Amino acid sequence: MAIVGEKGAMRQWSRSQRQCGRRIALVPTMGFLHEGHLSLVSEAKQRAEKVVVSIYVNPGQFAPGEDLDVYPRDFDGDVEKLKPLGVDIIFNPRDLYVRDSPEKNGAGHETWIRVENLEKPLCGGSRPLFFRGVATVVSKLLNIVEPDVVVFGKKDYQQWRVLSRMVRDLDFGVEVVGCKLVREADGLAMSSRNVRLTATERKNALAIFHSLKRAEELVRSGETDSSVLIEQAVSAISHAGGRVDYASIVDQETLQSVDKVASPSVFAIAAWFGSVRLLDNVELPNS
Q1: Among 126, 166, 230, 272, which residue has the fewest nearby CB atoms (within 10 Å)?
Q2: How many domains does the chain have?
Q3: Is the pTM here over 0.85, yes or no?
């Protein structure tokens, strides 16, 4: 396993592999890896001869006042976790933006990608700059690494949909794979930010998972009214001390809100516990 920090060296390696007919998979991450990330690597290994894992805390997706400075980092620990998995390259770029520093937050970089409709609901309501930063940095990674397949997790469901549409609309010619959300033993969705929760917040945050499972059970028993499902979730999370950013039931493809669960839908929740914003979702069964 090699660690590459320069764009030119990364391109050169990828092109040499492609010239030899080897298929390349990319797993983009921001580091502080957990079992959810490692499951993406395992999926990538099934789909390509060579696997690249990028580790880059992208300043372009953080607005002023968000948690860029305190986002957890442990590069040495990430390297140790990836060593036994057969990863070929860790791409840890230092120069993705024209002026890449946490203070300037990508300032000087003038070209941004917007996925107009899919980025507006859910997280787009409270983080209007987030998806332009995500789409732009992933497009840069795809241009540099030139993979045949890119693997994302569905914990960030909207992000997976936004990036899938970007790849399709801009003809990147890359296969996009979405992998199921991975949970802790007690049900909490795995996230690099979980480490910032206090013990009490960590326990209380399980209300998100339990409310989603309850919604799933209600749908299976015949409840299709989105407002009923959402109300029980918001009540449970608020009672546990959480502050709900959004709780929405949306069409799986368009991410537009639905009044009734009558077609493939996803129940997506973002909620704050303390200073940590957590995401979770469940794909609801058809009525």
Answers
A1: 126
A2: 2
A3: yes
Asked about 239 being catalytic, the answer comes back as no
pLDDT digits (tens, 9 = 90+) for 74-115: 999 999 999 999 999 999 998 788 654 555 555 678 899 999
CATH code: domain of residue 161? 3.40.50.620
Q: What is the 3-state secondary structure (H, E, C) of the chain?
A: CEEECCHHHHHHHHHHHHHCCCCEEEEEECCCCCHHHHHHHHHHHHHCCEEEEEECCCHHHCCCCCCCCCCCCCHHHHHHHHHHHCCCEEECCCCCCCCCCCCCCCCCCCCCCCCCCCCCCCHHHHCCCHHHHHHHHHHHHHHHHCCCEEEEEHHHHHHHHHHHHHHHHCCCCCEEEEECCCECCCCCECCHHHHHCCHHHHHHCHHHHHHHHHHHHHHHCCCCEHHHHHHHHHHHHHHCCCEEEEEEEEECCCCCECCECCCCEEEEEEEEECCEEEEEEEEECCC
Among residues 155, 179, 203, the one where a domain terminates is 179
Mean pLDDT of the chain: 96
At residue 179, the pLDDT reads: 98
Most confident of 98-102, 205-209, 282-286: 205-209
Range of the domain at 214: 192-284
The pLDDT confidence band at residue 202, using thresholds 50, 70 and 90, is very high
Residues 228 and 123 in one domain: no
Q: 65 and 170: one domain?
A: yes
Contact 48, 89 (CB under 8 A): no
Find all residues with CB under 8 Å of 231, minimum gap 6, and list them. none
> Residue 271 sits in a domain of what CATH number?
3.30.1300.10
Q: Are residues 142 and 205 in the same domain?
A: no
